């Protein structure tokens, strides 16, 4: 009986000890503030990715291939005449597809000719030449053209500038909130960030240019808008309450 009472007392004491340890182990939850920030940089594009396509349909495959090859050779000469660095000029392989029609009476298909195509991809580093390149390529026989894709060789640096502006914006937002809450900011705990860019509109012909003027001087017939580089951040700061009476 005595032994049993001692055992219960020991268990109760252990329970009290664990309870006291748990209460002492509780750590005050840190006070933080989470804010977002945005930054944007505007810049002129300095390069264009241009894809020029040449297509031909002929009853004979050789005739279609010759027509495509003649046009491609002429466009490649044009890039040299415009002093476009040839390391930025690439041609794809020739694509040849036979074409058929279906004879319902004979229940069979008949070969009617061949479709031949090839593409020339150009990374243009001098946008002043974009108008000449596009206009003269049409004159040489290019008949399939994608919209020029404008870009900047400094894109990564510009995105970093936008991110830096976003961080500064987030800090200003956090300081405003902290001041309203009678507190001040501590060090940032976490930062998440993302960046990107918005391409300018597809280059368009200047509206005030007549067709005759474009034919005689295509160098300035295209103009581009600006690109927008943006950064977005989410920052969590420590929030330090001011002492009573301190504002």
Automatic annotation (TrEMBL):
Task: Please provide the record's keywords in A-Z order.
Answer: Signal
> Origin, by domain of life?
Bacteria
Gene Ontology biological process terms from the UniProt entry: DNA damage response
Signal peptide coordinates:
1-24
Q: What is this protein called?
A: SIMPL domain-containing protein
Organism lineage string: Bacteria, Pseudomonadati, Pseudomonadota, Gammaproteobacteria, Steroidobacterales
